[in-house]
UniProtKB/TrEMBL annotation:
<feature type="domain" description="Secretion system C-terminal sorting">
    <location>
        <begin position="522"/>
        <end position="589"/>
    </location>
</feature>
<dbReference type="InterPro" id="IPR026444">
    <property type="entry name" value="Secre_tail"/>
</dbReference>
<dbReference type="Pfam" id="PF11551">
    <property type="entry name" value="Omp28"/>
</dbReference>
<dbReference type="InterPro" id="IPR021615">
    <property type="entry name" value="Omp28"/>
</dbReference>
<dbReference type="Pfam" id="PF18962">
    <property type="entry name" value="Por_Secre_tail"/>
</dbReference>
<keyword id="KW-0732">Signal</keyword>
<protein>
    <submittedName>
        <fullName>Por secretion system C-terminal sorting domain-containing protein</fullName>
    </submittedName>
</protein>
<dbReference type="InterPro" id="IPR013783">
    <property type="entry name" value="Ig-like_fold"/>
</dbReference>
Length: 591
């Protein structure tokens, strides 16, 4: 029989207490899962202020990338699209965010590209005395200085996206190896890589690859307060955020995301930071999302080439997929895609061209086989036909401040030039202004045949049809058939040339005299039940709602024949009248 003395019991208590303390200490150390507790030098957080229309910005991108690649895991880039060069013109993507303007303002930048390194003021390198913004030629020197400085806080981060819910979970840890400010701020930025788009000076057209693009600040404009900042303090924060399908209509590629976390003193000085690519998980095994359908331009001839994006939300790689589609619920076409799409990856697929009988308003319906989530297996997109007029058209050019740079051309479907105009009268010394600046130049054009026509706008200087002063008339290009507007576009900084394929259609009709056209009317208007057309004989009528959907048609009508519209709902409609030599559209109000 074993007998325990008091000494034995006390010794056992001490051993238990020692073991318990060791276990608690071990758990405390293990709880610091990703951040180092050893004093380290600062990492570089380089915020570059850039824009898609900035000619020198690609040089800035290259310099920043060189600094990062020379210091892997120690340099992290955040590209902030902001300022005048980031404002998109027609057809350009909008990479700006609601955060960019304030970030740029606090840097005191005076040009683009510019950048801040840890938002620190580097005397002699700054654009503005006392500011943090620097020209691209000074970023390397500033980064070298930061990398040699000790930091009082270490930062580490991990991130995972549940692709089924699009929820990102980010763990950020900070460990203070020395005393910090009484209050520091923790910031968390969400970035997207490998986004193709335009870039002036990039020499890649619309296929320039934009990297480290800021899309969101998860902790807000200036971060969240950290109040436990003494030496030995350990901070662990977990953030969740549901990622939208797009930012400013630019799709989010879940497989191209990264996060950068950093600790600041106030809204400016960055003490240290860390970034990481995002990992992915899913509760699905076999789940494909018909993510989006690209916009279809107005069609002239019924030739439709749909483009879709699919996303793999399941753990099983996708190697083939049957895609069904139709136009206006007509013939169903099938296309089999093959490839290798893994979890969180997207794939853009161009479906084979189809020809359909199209209406003024049309819809393309697309579907993929049902899977674990049936809510994302169908999608659709609407498009309109190009408007049709007579062969007699009027072209109106709204000039900008440099009319001598502006010309235009119209081509038929065989790419034969059928009409052109400009340049207009500007100052001969090359400066802006002149006789034709900010005026409307009108041209009467008779087109050779019924066809689908393409418009080209050209600018000899290469900066499009635009002027920075919003108080002056907007430049642009308008086409009329009689009093009916067939096509209009406002000017923009499109560069040297903007082509609008299938801008409008012409039928075989030559327009009648404008006075005769004005005499054609409908009455009563507004109408409650019956409608009459005066001063027109042997005509067809088509009435469409505001969506362009035809709601009533009739053929071979005589002058003042009663037309019953009692079945139409109250609202606004458009009445299209067409005879052998005449076409006119009139707005109708049904009461």
């Amino acid at each position: 029989m074993l007998q325990l003395t008091t000494n034995h019991i006390e010794m056992k208590k001490k051993l238990l207490l020692t073991s318990a303390f060791a276990l608690i200490s071990s758990l405390a150390i293990q709880s610091q899962t990703i951040v180092s507790t050893t004093p380290e030098n600062k990492n570089v957080i380089l915020e570059e202020f850039t824009g898609i229309n900035c000619v020198y910005c690609p040089s800035g991108h290259a310099i920043a990338e060189s600094i990062r690649s020379s210091n892997p895991n120690d340099v992290f880039l955040i590209n902030v699209h902001t300022g005048g060069y980031a404002i998109p013109s027609a057809e350009q993507p909008d990479f700006t965010t609601s955060f960019g303007s304030a970030l740029a303002s606090q840097s005191n930048l005076t040009g683009y590209p510019s950048g801040t390194v840890n938002r620190h003021v580097f005397s002699g390198l700054e654009m503005t005395s006392g500011g943090t913004a620097m020209s691209r030629g000074n970023w390397q020197s500033a980064a070298n200085q930061i990398l040699t400085q000790s930091s009082y806080v270490n930062v580490a981060t991990q991130a995972n996206v549940d692709v089924a819910t699009r929820e990102i979970t980010v763990l950020v840890e900070a460990y203070f190896t020395a005393n910090g400010n009484s209050t520091n701020k923790l910031n968390l930025a969400l970035l997207q890589n490998n986004t193709e788009g335009p870039q002036t000076g990039g020499n890649m057209g619309d296929n320039y690859v934009h990297q480290h693009r800021l899309v969101h600040l998860i902790t807000g404009q200036w971060g969240e307060d950290i109040t436990t900042t003494s030496q030995g303090s350990f901070i662990s924060k977990t953030y969740t955020y549901t990622i939208p399908k797009d930012y400013n209509d630019i799709g989010v590629e879940l497989s191209e995301l990264e996060v950068v976390a950093f600790v600041t003193e106030g809204n400016q000085e960055i003490i240290n930071g860390h970034g990481t690519d995002v990992t992915y998980s899913s509760s699905y095994n076999n789940e494909i999302s018909l993510f989006s359908v690209s916009e279809i331009e107005d069609s002239c001839d019924g030739h439709i080439t749909p483009e879709i994006t699919i996303s793999n939300l399941g753990n099983t790689p996708l190697t083939s997929l049957i895609i069904d589609y139709n136009i206006n619920n007509g013939t169903t076409y099938s296309y089999t895609w093959t490839g290798n799409l893994v979890l969180a990856q997207n794939e853009t697929i161009t479906l084979p061209e189809q020809v359909a009988s199209i209406q003024q308003s049309n819809i393309v319906n697309i579907s993929i086989p049902t899977d674990e989530d049936t809510s994302n297996n169908t999608n659709s997109i609407s498009f309109n036909t190009s408007l049709e007029g007579t062969r007699n058209i009027t072209v109106e050019v709204r000039t900008d401040y440099f009319p001598g740079e502006m010309t235009w051309e119209i081509y038929d479907s065989a790419e034969t030039l059928v009409a052109s105009g400009g340049p207009y009268v500007g100052n001969t010394n090359g400066s802006g202004g002149g006789q034709d600046a900010f005026t409307t130049k009108s041209h009467s054009v008779t087109l050779p045949q019924a066809d689908c026509y393409t418009v080209k706008l050209l600018d000899s200087y290469g900066d499009g049809w635009a002027f920075w002063d919003s108080t002056v008339p907007t430049a642009g290009f308008d086409i009329y058939s009689g009093s009916n507007l067939l096509y209009t576009i406002d000017g923009s900084n499109f560069g040297s040339e903007l082509e609008i394929a299938g801008a409008f259609r012409a039928n075989s009709t030559l327009a009648v005299d404008q006075n005769d056209l004005k005499a054609i009317t409908i009455y009563p208007n507004p109408s409650t039940g019956k409608l009459f057309v005066s001063n027109l004989d042997n005509f067809d009528i088509s009435i469409a709602d505001v969506r362009g959907v035809s709601v009533l048609t009739a053929k071979n009508l005589k002058n003042n024949t009663p037309i019953n519209i009692e079945s139409l709902e109250t609202g606004v409609y458009f009445v299209n009248l067409k005879s052998e030599n005449t076409q006119k559209t009139i707005k109708l109000i049904k009461e």
